[in-house]
Amino acid sequence: MILTETLNGPAPFTNGRLMLCNVGRLGDTILRNSILDAACRTYAKVDYICGTGNVELVRNDSRLHDITIFDRSLSSWAWLFKMAVRRRYDGFISLKDHPSSTSQLIARLFRSRMKTGWNSDHLHPFNRDVREVCAPDQHQTETMRRIGQLAGLDKGEYKPSLVLSADSVNWFQRNHDREEPYIFLNVSATGADRMWPAENWARYVRGCGLAEESILVSGMPKDRAMVDELCRKLPRAVAFQPRQFMDVAAAVRAARLVLTVDTGVVHACSALNTPIVAFYCAGITPTINQPLSTRRLVIQARGNVTEMDPEEAIAETMRRGLP
């Protein structure tokens, strides 16, 4: 299935039309969309190709003109081919900071005087290759700034981008209207190595003196048993059941503090400047994906988060202080 939506964008700064391509995950999209400010300062119209997994993060952004949802089916490819035949772009930028055969093939379909993206050894659809500006230890927002500069975009503000939907904000206010400040605790992550057992979360919350705080516990449907277990262990914890990621973002925006493992919630905090404590596995991930909230605490495990000792996490938090 493929669908193109036309939105009413702001008044253009200059002429021309740009296509951005980012069929990716939610968290990465929040960071990669830091390029939008510069893109919209450079081109009169900015179109966007996304996937079914990240469309909710771009659908509410009034800066974008046409949004095309791509799901890799044959009908999707056929629709993209028709689009490419009908319209020529002044610029085409793939927002991936790593090799992507999907982005390379899509780029080959479209006509553009300038294409920017990651070439592979076998496919070279991009005039300007981002491999020369991508480094393994730099934050994704800095990578986007360098990609934008390589693509000839005007100077802009490169910061994580998340436009909340009015529907999710209203839904949260109707269903979770909380008069007192609360902590938002997210237990879910895409990788099993990033998950922390409910007992460890409970020990950490108690050890940091937060057990009597109002806590909203969130997790993906597959982790509902873990959410319920944690609510039983903490006296003032309540389960949060979002319909979609935008509902989570609405809760994050209203929270006084977020506790989470390394996942898209971290980047939502960065975009909304919500105070955060984030747990990461060992490695360079905290460098390239670390939270950018003004008040933040990053705790890195010796190995996987799953194996992290809660007493060590408590000691580190007490030493550095809650944000």
Secondary structure elements and pairings:
Elements lengths: L2 E4 L10 E6 L3 H7 L3 H7 L2 E7 L14 E5 L3 H13 L1 E2 L1 E4 L6 H9 L1 E2 L2 E3 L10 E2 L10 H11 L15 H10 L7 E4 L11 H10 L7 E4 L5 H10 L3 E4 L4 H10 L2 E5 L2 H9 L3 E5 L4 H5 L6 E5 L9 H11 L3
Parallel strand pairs: 2-3, 2-6, 3-4, 5-7, 6-8, 8-9, 10-11, 10-13, 11-12, 13-14, 14-15
Antiparallel strand pairs: 1-4
Features:
single chain, 323 residues, alpha/beta, Rossmann fold, 2 domains, seven-stranded mixed sheet, six-stranded parallel sheet, 12 helices, 15 strands, 35% helix, elongated
What does this structure look like?
This protein has two domains: 3-150, Glycogen Phosphorylase B (Rossmann fold); 166-320, Rossmann fold. Mean pLDDT is 92; it is low at 4-13. It is elongated and about 60 Å long. Helix content is 35%, strand content 19%. It has 323 residues and is an alpha/beta fold. A seven-stranded mixed beta sheet has the order 1-4-3-2-6-8-9, covered by helices on one side. Strands 12-11-10-13-14-15 form a six-stranded parallel beta sheet, with helices on both faces. Strands 5-7 form a two-stranded parallel sheet. 44% of the residues are buried.
* Model regions low in confidence, pLDDT < 50 over at least 5 residues: 4-13
The end-to-end distance, rounded to whole angstroms, is 44 Å
Number of H- or I-type helical stretches:
12
What CATH calls the topology of the largest domain is: Rossmann fold
Shape: elongated
- Estimate nothing, just give the exact number of structural domains: 2
Main sheet characteristics: 7 strands, mixed
Q: Give the averaged pLDDT, no decimals.
A: 92
Structural class: alpha/beta
- What is the CATH superfamily label of the largest domain? Glycogen Phosphorylase B
